[in-house]
Design goal:
Elements: H1 11-21, H2 24-63, E1 87-90, H3 97-105, H4 110-113, H5 119-129, E2 141-144, E3 150-162, E4 190-195, E5 201-206, E6 217-223, E7 248-256, E8 259-260, H6 275-278, E9 280-286, E10 306-314, E11 317-319, E12 326-330, E13 335-338
Parallel strand pairs: 3-9, 5-7
Antiparallel strand pairs: 1-2, 3-4, 3-6, 4-5, 6-7, 7-8, 9-10, 10-11, 10-12, 12-13
């Protein structure tokens, strides 16, 4: 049987057969798809470079738990300042100045402060109460002031200075990035400048090991400066006409933001005073969350009320006990009256 001979196709014929096997619709669609796909890919690449990081960052933010504490909003400034003032007392039968001060003002050390051994002190007391202490008669009206008064304040820390001109606060010579914030050493004493109202600043002498940062909120009880009387170094009364603005006080109960300094100097250790002899101290303050309420004394009065209250000295800590004397300042009479 004769073999049939099948001639081999040439490359040109094979290519022609391949093209004939492709549907003509596909040949039309492929170029169109290429023309659409290339711009789409380029646009998508640019858009994706922004979208993907944004989406990634969103999920990262949602899943991330920060360990940083949430800043506590600062209290509002006072609108009314504590007021230095007096109460009135009517002299009874057989009263004398020492007994009146001991009974009405808890000044059991009155005879040591106002002593006949120093006639100048008794003369000054007579001037302060408005009557001659050696010639009291029933029915006379006396004005009695709080001895060695302390004041409750809160404010923003504006400045930290050395307590004395000779003391130098350590300051870094070069700015070095550190994991710990630099704070001045105030364990030996610093002079702080506090803003206590929108327009009033005071200076505060304080000894503390707590870190201090500008902008921190300071809570403090402090001893008011006493009126300067020549020849009477331990004169016990504050000047009712003195302005708080620029006044320098000595801290005896100190707190920075939410941290109380348990090693701060007790008020009874500030000299001069009769806190240990008297068993307590008179505190001047203003009711409200931005002042006196911070100390949580059980005092009930409208916010903004100027208060004078007797605090008992319990082993170095001053506390208010129900039933102890408490007064509010009356603007019309310019005297403290029973609350």
């Amino acid at each position: 049987m004769a073999h049939r001979f099948h001639p081999r196709s040439t490359p040109k014929e094979n290519l022609h057969i391949f093209f004939r096997s492709i549907p003509w619709k596909l040949i039309v669609i492929i170029p169109i798809m290429v023309l659409l796909a290339v711009p789409t890919f380029i646009y998508g690449a640019h858009a994706g470079s922004g979208i993907i990081p944004s989406v990634t960052n969103m999920f990262y933010t949602l899943s991330n738990v920060s360990n940083l504490p949430t800043p506590t909003p600062l209290p509002a400034f006072l609108t009314t300042l504590p007021q230095v003032g007096s109460i009135q007392y009517t002299v009874g039968e057989g009263d004398n100045c020492d007994e009146i001060l001991a009974y009405s003002m808890h000044m059991y050390g009155a005879s040591q402060v106002f002593s006949d051994a120093n006639a100048n002190t008794v003369k000054q007391l007579s001037h302060d109460v408005g009557q001659d202490c050696h010639r009291l008669q029933p029915g006379m009206i006396l004005t009695l002031s709080p001895q060695y008064p302390i004041v409750a304040l809160g404010g923003v820390l504006l400045k930290i200075d050395a307590a004395t001109a000779r003391q130098v606060l350590p300051t870094p010579l070069i700015k070095v990035h550190s994991t710990e914030d630099y704070t001045p050493d105030c364990s030996k004493g610093c002079l702080l400048t506090l803003r206590i109202t929108s327009t009033v600043t005071v200076h505060l002498n304080v000894q503390t090991a707590l870190p201090l940062h500008l902008g921190a909120w300071i809570w403090t009880q402090a001893m008011l400066p006493h009126k300067v009387v020549p020849g009477f170094s331990n004169y016990p009364y504050a000047d009712p006409t003195a302005s708080f603005n620029g006044m320098t006080l000595r801290a005896c109960d100190f707190q920075v933001n939410d941290t109380h300094d348990d090693d701060s100097v007790p008020c009874s250790q500030l000299e001069p005073n009769t806190i240990n002899d008297d068993g307590g101290a008179w505190l001047l303050g203003v009711t409200g969350s931005n002042s006196l309420d911070h100390w949580r004394y059980p005092i009930h009065a409208p916010a903004g009320t100027q208060i004078m209250v007797w605090l008992q000295n319990d082993n170095g800590t001053l506390r208010y006990h129900r039933g102890d004397p408490i007064y509010r300042y009356d603007v019309l009479s310019q005297l403290y009256v029973k609350l």
